Amino acid sequence: MTEAIVTLILTSALLLGSPGPAPLALAAAGAVFGVRRSLPFLMGILLGLAVAISGAALGLNVLFEAFPEAVFVMQLVGAAYLLFIAFKIATAPVISPGLETGEYAPTFVHGFVLNLMNPKAYAAFVAIFSQFLLPTVPKAWAFALTGVLCFLVALVVDVVWLCLGGLMRPLFTRPQSARVLRLLLAVLMLVSVAWVIWQ
């Protein structure tokens, strides 16, 4: 059982913690808006992930296989939200008292929709449930424990990405470097979106 848990933790950390749209969006939000102001965005991402875990456990992959156009629509909506978030990051003003109100930061809803409309998240958890399901009985407990452990791993890696972004925040107090860094983060997000859709 211990070996199965370690394997599951490592696999889910690699799947969920590798640089993709959500981790990069969290890092960018932390860098531009600060960790505290980005917490609602993080909470939304985690709730969307919980829905993806539940959906995978309930077999939504069967629905996606039957209706591939649903996957495409979800990809488009998710990409549109990521483009919107990238735009907010690229056009945010230099750190100032106005930013401290959090009025520019991505919201809980943005984070929730980001993962809710991410077919790759569902696919990742279908793979985890089919290959790395914890060996417990009854089966419902195995799915529940595997899902909870994956969620906890996601919580840790997402907080790490957000905090890494937060460590970059002092760089965003200088107007010239802030402009370049915001655009760089936005471009990285766009590249990650294009990569996910292309795959």
Describe the protein's architecture and organization.
The structure is a single chain. The chain has helices at 2-17, 21-33, 35-57, 60-66, 68-91, 108-116, 119-131, 139-167, 175-198. It has 199 residues and is mainly alpha-helical. It has one domain. The radius of gyration is 17 Å and the shape is globular.
Lay out the secondary structure.
Elements: H1 2-17, H2 21-33, H3 35-57, H4 60-66, H5 68-91, H6 108-116, H7 119-131, H8 139-167, H9 175-198
Q: Span between N and C termini?
A: 34 Å
Helix content: over 70%
Q: Could you state the order of secondary-structure elements as H and E?
A: HHHHHHHHH
Count of separate DSSP helical elements:
9
Q: Could you list the spans in which at least 5 consecutive residues all have pLDDT below 50?
A: 97-101
Residues in β-strands, percent: under 5%
Shape estimate: globular
What summary fits the major beta sheet? Answer: none
How many structural units, i.e. domains? 1
Radius of gyration: 17 Å
In short:
The chain has 199 residues and is an all-alpha fold. It is built from 9 helices and no strands.
Features:
199 residues, mainly alpha
